[in-house]
Specification:
heterodimer; A: mainly alpha; two-stranded antiparallel ribbon; 11 helices; 3% strand; flat; B: alpha/beta; six-stranded mixed β-sheet; four-stranded antiparallel β-sheet; 12 helices; 10 strands; 42% helix; 21% strand; globular
């Protein structure tokens, strides 16, 4: 019953986007997301739209996937649109008692919603084209300069990797314990909220115990293989910055510059 | 009151890209009073099969009935029928959760809606049955016991529901030989003294050959062989090997001795049987 949940969003493929270094992708995504907020005129919006669509096309991902990424956030999207449409002042287009729609509001609403949609699409492109392991590797590497300021970049990345690794294991465990307790007459699905919360105890206690046991085992296993943190640790798959990354980053910086110029001259 | 499986097919993740058919058209009758051993290599579908017996999984096609009542029904009757089949999972000690041993064993009987006295009586009986002294252990935490003792508490928790059928999935996994002996002795007593029908899933042919009256060999989601264990060991060794399992060591030995020209009885199940058979040959 819990077996069908897919973990992470990674969609394997071999597009240029898939092949890019995770560091480039993370940085590029961050920069572009900030840049989107500098777009203001209709022309610059068209430009941003064109670039986003082009990148999506480059990723060779099925459109259905990107639609799935937007779906869970539709409430926020609709809310953003509604707030702008109904609360802005300006030339009134339509009015009914205290509710009014203005031309400026409509414009603003559409543009803000577009911003939001691009933001979601672009960041989901990152998680769709990068496997969780590469993503954490990238984050680790990018955080390394902050180590001097006390940011434990390796530990953070290791924690993320382990957490991701154990999601399926714990789901399996949950399924098994649920079945065992159901065999003993436990009922997880009916009854009042309080009763159902109480019925979780026979599930959660064994689950926590087993999570701690696994953590203990893993710690011992890592220690037995001489794990002593990130210091001097080499890796099997080195991240490597290629010409592809240089070119992609240059294109992105160019795009961001164009957006900034458009903003400056209000084109 | 038999458990009847009627052409049961089960598919995991139906309608998703991860679809996998685990059982294919299994028809089977489990009669009261039997001691059934189920064997099959990893991934053969044996765990999936036993989870159908108390309605944890419902067949994709076909049906499972206990005493004529379909387990997939949503009636009170079907719920009670599901409780007639007790299930002891692999590593059952991982499902303990209460503060005291007595409370944990009482979990099942409480869910059955019994009276307080009846629950207490059942907890006492169950603890007595698995050889844990009530006075000493009732108020202790189950998490401070040894692995073997924890497992006995967990089994007591299922026994306390007084099931007519008891399914055990690898009950001896991870126990030392002494622990195995104890667990199997208890299962045997449950079968003999209380007339509980036992369905034992195991990798270990030896355990099954010693106890089971009927052996089911599962391979690739189908029942490959079904019969008396000794008959299967004598006649179908090759089929067994193809399914990734082998006859127990004693049968391997008798087969070998016969092959080398020593006509010991192939019906020997224990080492003592073989010794007796050889002794009688010497006398002749």
């Amino acid at each position: 019953m819990l077996g069908n949940i897919t973990i992470g969003q990674y969609f394997p493929g071999d597009s240029l986007l898939h092949r890019m270094d995770p560091r480039t992708k993370i940085l590029a995504t961050l920069i572009y997301i900030v840049a989107i907020f500098f777009a203001q005129t209709v022309v610059s919006y068209l430009f941003v739209t064109a670039f986003t669509v082009w990148v999506i096309w480059m990723s060779k991902l099925p459109v259905r996937l990107l639609w799935n990424a937007l779906k869970p956030l539709w409430i926020i999207i609709v809310f953003t649109l509604a707030i702008h449409v109904f609360t802005s002042t300006g030339t009134v287009l339509w009015q009914w008692s205290f509710i009014h729609i203005t031309k400026e509001g409509l414009q603003m609403g559409v543009l803000m919603t577009a911003r939001l949609v691009y933001l979601i699409l672009f960041s989901s492109l990152l998680t769709y084209t990068t496997s969780p392991i590469r993503l954490t590797d990238g984050i680790e590497r990018l955080l390394r300069p902050f180590q001097r300021l006390g940011v434990p970049s390796h530990e953070l990345a290791m924690m993320m990797t382990i957490a991701l690794r154990f999601i399926p294991t714990l789901l399996e465990e949950t399924d098994r314990i649920m079945k065992a307790q159901e065999s003993r007459g436990a009922d997880f699905t009916t009854g009042s909220l309080v009763k159902r919360a109480k019925s979780m105890v026979p599930l959660l206690v064994p689950l926590f115990i087993s999570a701690f046991r696994r953590a203990d085992d893993l710690a011992v296993a890592m220690e037995a293989r001489c794990y002593r943190g990130g210091e001097g640790r080499t890796r099997m798959k080195e991240l490597c910055y290629t010409r592809l990354d240089t070119v992609s980053m240059s294109i992105l910086i160019l795009v961001v510059l164009i957006i900034l110029v458009m903003r400056f001259y209000a084109v | 009151m038999p458990i009847v499986l009627d052409s049961v097919t089960y598919t995991y993740g139906q309608g998703t890209p991860f679809e996998k058919q685990a059982l294919t058209g299994i028809s089977l009758t489990i009669n009261e009073g039997e001691f059934i051993g189920i064997i099959g290599h990893t991934g053969s579908g044996k765990s999936t099969l036993v989870q159908h017996l108390n309605g944890l999984l419902h067949p994709t096609e076909g049906q499972v009935t206990v005493n004529g009542i379909n387990l997939a029904d949503k009636t009170e009757e079907a719920k009670q029928s599901r409780h007639m089949v007790g299930m002891v999972f692999q590593y059952p000690e991982h499902q303990l959760f209460e503060e005291t041993i007595a409370k944990d064993i009482a979990f099942g009987p409480t869910n059955l809606g019994l009276t307080q006295e009846e629950i207490e009586q059942r907890v006492k009986d169950a603890m007595d049955f698995v050889g844990l002294d009530y006075k000493t252990y009732a108020d202790r935490s189950p998490f401070h016991l040894s692995g073997g003792q924890m497992r006995r508490v967990a089994i007591a928790g299922v026994v306390a529901m007084k099931p007519k059928y008891l399914v055990l999935d690898e009950p001896s996994a991870g126990l030392d030989p002494a622990g195995r002996e104890e667990i199997f002795a208890e299962i045997m007593r449950l079968h003999k003294e209380q007339g509980v029908t036992v369905i034992l899933v195991s990798h270990n042919m030896e355990d099954i050959s010693k106890m089971a009256t009927r052996l089911l060999v599962i391979d690739d989601g189908k029942v490959l062989l079904d019969g008396k264990p000794i008959d299967i060991f004598m006649k179908y060794r090759e089929t067994l090997q193809k399914a990734g399992v082998d006859v127990p060591p004693v049968s391997q030995l008798t087969a070998y001795l016969n092959q080398r020209g020593l006509p010991v009885s192939e019906e020997a199940i224990t080492v003592d049987d073989v010794v007796a058979s050889i002794e009688s040959l010497k006398k002749r």
